[in-house]
């Protein structure tokens, strides 16, 4: 059994753009990915740890618990043995309460990779492979989240390239979600259901290559 941990934010939690509702598991990309892998006869279990508002390493001054670095080592320990951890974070680093640059956000991702690799897993359990997924470019935010993500589309320019550099430096797999999907025209930040489908299929294909390599 290959256990895959998805450590992410609302783009993976499956928030429906323009609402506070959630897509069902089979429609959000981790569920699509699991379905694709099972269809290809891989023995897998996808574990979702996707929190709305989660940053890489920054605190939300208004809502505690959104610093992705806090507790990640224990999450690895709790869910081990893991074959793969998929890190899909960065969008919330550009909320208006932060002055984060793309390079700083990518360094936050690097800090998460380091934390995963120092997690106190039990002796004999494997160190999981790590895939970094760069969020698709943020559009000008609309609706209820417009003020929260004011100017995020400008501050986040270059994020995919910066995360790709981290992946190369730290020997992680990488996927640029912006090559596969676009953010919703409804709110500019999240993914519509058809984009979840596309992303789940694309990530599943990449996961197959990782699992084959690890056999």
TrEMBL record:
Protein name: SGNH hydrolase-type esterase domain-containing protein
InterPro entries according to UniProt: SGNH_hydro, SGNH_hydro_sf
Molecular function GO terms recorded: hydrolase activity, acting on ester bonds
SUPFAM superfamilies to which the protein is assigned, alphabetical: SGNH hydrolase
Short name of any one Pfam family annotated for the protein: Lipase_GDSL_2
Superkingdom of this protein's organism: Bacteria
Stretches assigned to the SGNH hydrolase-type esterase domain: 27-184
């Amino acid at each position: 059994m290959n256990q895959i941990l998805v450590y992410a934010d609302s783009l993976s939690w499956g928030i429906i753009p323009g609402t506070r509702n959630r897509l069902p598991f089979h429609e959000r990309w981790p569920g699509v990915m699991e379905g694709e892998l099972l269809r290809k006869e891989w023995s897998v279990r996808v574990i979702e740890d996707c929190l709305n508002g989660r940053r890489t390493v920054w605190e939300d001054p208004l809502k505690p618990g959104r610093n992705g670095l806090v507790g990640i080592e224990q999450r690895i320990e709790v869910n081990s043995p893991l074959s793969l951890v998929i890190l899909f974070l960065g969008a919330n680093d550009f909320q208006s309460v932060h002055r984060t640059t793309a390079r700083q956000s990518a360094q936050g991702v690097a800090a998460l990779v380091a934390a995963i690799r120092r997690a106190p897993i039990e002796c004999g359990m494997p160190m999981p492979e790590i895939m970094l997924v760069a969020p698709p470019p943020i559009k000008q935010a609309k609706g209820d989240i417009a003020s929260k993500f004011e100017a995020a589309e400008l501050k986040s320019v270059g994020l995919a390239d910066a995360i790709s550099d981290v992946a190369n430096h730290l020997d992680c797999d990488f996927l640029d979600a912006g090559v596969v999907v676009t953010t919703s025209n409804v709110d500019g930040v999240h993914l519509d259901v058809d984009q979840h489908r596309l992303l789940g299929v694309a990530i599943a294909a990449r996961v197959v290559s990782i699992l084959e390599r690890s056999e």
